[in-house]
């Protein structure tokens, strides 16, 4: 029996609550996971898991083994990676979560550059706009907007996401030039759910001035940045977007900045990782690699006071 492989299969089954989830995370078949678990129970002469149609839970003996072995296996893997690192070789799996837009537009390319430097690294990049549980879902790192609450994580801020108002030229041709924030009340607004308050008030900031709130009429709201951009490109209204996602669209003339003297309040952006999980060398190496690259992205400022407003 491969004790190391059996323990890894057991640990992931406990954390995922299913052998299917464990197999997916480990990159092996479900029958292989089942075989590892049966061999481990025979080896210990103890039942480790309670199986039901809904999920799999550890028994008392299983929980004891899980608590004792999880850190030990992680330490062994880290020690092996550390030796490879000392001889100039970084390898292993890197599992990362990020919001879909910054993930596809920026993080994807950074990861490819990192793989060029370290060809033996395998990457799992999961892109969506939900909040993930780093421990339960076995992520090494996540990119997040806003403070991370109720998780045992270490968060390193890489900047503030500047947010601006934009529209397609075709929409502005129909409604005319927008000269003041008050005009927004009579125009079609394309928005995410988080920017507008429950009273449909759009908060706008201007350098050196207090925040103002403009009552607006959202005609289309979404939680997906790609949908938001496509709706704006279709000429359906004015929307607030992350500047780093539209720099090329503005340069190409497909979107135009509206009220450039104003901006929506910027959002803090963090790279986070579990505080109770030993940082493997591959994770540490990528963290050191990605942080300066993220800070260089146009539209990500290094000061909360830098709103990206035109003077």
TrEMBL record:
Transmembrane segments: none
Domain of life from the UniProt record: Bacteria
GO molecular function: DNA binding; DNA-binding transcription factor activity
InterPro entries tied to this protein: LysR-type_TF_proteobact-type, LysR_HTH_N, LysR_subst-bd, WH-like_DNA-bd_sf, WH_DNA-bd_sf
Domain HTH lysR-type span(s) in chain numbering: 1-59
Keyword set includes Magnesium: no
Keyword field contains Transcription: yes
Alphabetical UniProt keywords: DNA-binding, Transcription, Transcription regulation
One Pfam family linked to the record: HTH_1
Annotated family: Belongs to the LysR transcriptional regulatory family.
Name by which UniProt lists this protein: LysR family transcriptional regulator
